[in-house]
Amino acid sequence: MSTRRDLPEAPYLAAASGLTSSRIPVWFMRQAGRSLPEYRALRAQNTMMEACFDAELICEITLQPIRRHGVDAAILFSDIVVPLRAAGVDLDIVAAVGPVIANPVRTEADVAVLKSLELARIDAVSDAVRLLVGELGDVPLIGFAGAPFTLASYLVEGGPSKLHERTKAMMLAQPATWHALMEVLTDLTIAFLKVQLDAGVDAVQVFDSWAGTLSLADYRTFVLPHSSRVFAGVADYGVPMTHFGVGTAELLGAMAEATGRRPKTVVGVDWRTSLADAATRVGAGTALQGNLDPVVLLAGWPVTEKAARAVVDDGRRALGAGASGHIFNLGHGVSPTTDPGLLTDLVELVHSL
After folding, report:
1. What topology does CATH give the domain 11-352?
2. Of 146, 166, 288, 324, which has the highest C-beta tally within 10 A?
3. Is 220 a catalytic residue?
4. Which of 241, 223, 226 is nearest to 186 (CA)?
């Protein structure tokens, strides 16, 4: 393990750890990306996959929103399918589509092939983390990975899906095959997070982006044991750990359960659920992250300011309802058409509150 940086004054780490922070910390999911002209200039010369496996590009893209917006945390530039690609899965990220899998996983035999997956060609990620730790000063760096269910959904569907029909069909009709697939992906997720943690990230976030497609009963049966093993697998590092999904109002309690409700755990909340309500669902002692609707940013500054103030007020109510901290964020990622100047103004506003 690497030696952890000592960042006692970092508001993000304080809020995530249940400590008093000097201000409301704010960062944005997808802050390093398509909304920034400097990012688009770099990407014009490189594919997404090329950028994700180039340490210097990873470092530069991760730093861009820190320089521009003054957010309280950086998140490593990467993609949730990077560990799959690094382990040899034939996939690509197609513009305007997303991850596309050349050979979808549909049968027990397909899963058997995946059982030999091991991370390789991942030095660029650890090298980028070490570069960033040296560049970021007192700004924490968040590492991340996709949760096993969300990775499984891409593998089974062959790409993005609205209804996740094939995924749920395998889960319900072939439970042994499903759990075998999830075991493989859980091991891969833990390994990918450990690469980042060993290189020096200050916190991690697990994205279960598509878990909201499930009922609570199915989540508990088919997902929770595997997500729990992910968090248990990296808990000894002692860093803040965040669990996030979209459309997961009914799952928030179970998602908090997956973190083990250990110290320094955070549950991300999308814009559909108030933070105060989320606090009662998650249970006392866990910090919350969120949850401005990203589309609000497209409605101009007066609307954004009003909505941001409402999120901050809701965060205060959540603290009163037992949440151990509040980290201001969006309820999902920054839209590509967002005005970067508005994001900078939003950071200044939240800090002033």
Report:
1. TIM Barrel (3.20.20)
2. 288
3. no
4. 226
Catalytic residue among 5, 34, 130, 229: 34
Residues 339 and 353: their CA atoms lie apart, in Å, by 22
Question: What is the DSSP code string of 122-161?
Answer: -HHHHHHHHHHHHHSTTS-EEEEEE-HHHHHHHHHHSS--
79 is a catalytic site residue: yes
Q: Which two tokens stand for residue 48?
A: 């997404």
Examine the residue annotation and report whether 316 is marked as an active-site residue of this protein. no
34 labelled catalytic: yes
- Delimit the domains of the chain by residue range: 11-352
pTM of the full structure? 0.95
Question: Could you confirm whether 43 is annotated as catalytic?
Answer: yes
pLDDT in tens, 289-302: 999 999 999 999 99
Instruction: Using alpha carbons, select from 228, 244, 235, 350 the residue that is nearest to residue 289.
Output: 244
What confidence tens digit (pLDDT) does each residue in 160-196 have? 888 999 999 999 999 999 999 999 999 999 999 999 9
Beta bridge pairs of residue 265: 241
Q: Could you tell me how many helices (H) and strands (E) the chain has, helices first?
A: 16, 9
Tokens of 19: 């400590």
